[in-house]
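Hi all, long-time lurker, first post. I run a small reading group and we've been trying to get comfortable going from sequence to structure in the token notation. Rather than ask abstract questions, I figured I'd post a concrete chain and ask someone more experienced to write out its structure so we can walk through it together at our next meeting. Sequence below, copied exactly:
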Amino acid sequence: MSDQNYTKDGLLHFLKEAAVSGLMNPAVARSRNTAAQQLLEHVTPEERINLKQLDIDELCSRIHKLEDSSIREEALNLYNARLKSAMEDYFVWLENPEKYKQQGLGQIQAPTPEKKRSRKEQKALESITLKQSTLADDIIPIPLRKGLTIYLKGLPLNLSQSEAEKICRVVQAYAQVGADDEK
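-- Answer (accepted) --
Happy to help. Here is the structure in token form:
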């Protein structure tokens, strides 16, 4: 695995092999692999063959600016950190596999006091990120009658008139014929 292959495929192969061979915690390898696959879809051909010239922050900025990007900002930030860690480990592995093994990179280690603070902060940031994605900002309450409110979730910001009419037709299909309107 240490043939100075700085390509996208080399990184993905490293993550797979590191998990299988025990060089890296399998859960860590999977999460980094997912991040790498999602973000590296958007690299230029030059970056694809030499990841050393890749600026991950700039890549994430490019992805964020894409109108059709399916990666939410919270996930993009998490993928950014994971890809940076994956590439750091990969480059250490390529340059000196023995150093990588001796330092136990990619493994879950008992935190030192400084790392413990950093990990606590990281967990707090991840918790905030997860909570942000489940906040009720995108839930619309619709009071139907006394004691009955329904909640509409997930409407896109760029909802078209035809899409709104389609949603109305689906809701109308649930209406019972002859039911009295209560106000």
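A couple of things your group might point at:
The chain has eight helices and two strands.
The helical segments are 8-21, 26-39, 45-49, 56-65, 73-95, 97-103, 113-134, 161-173.
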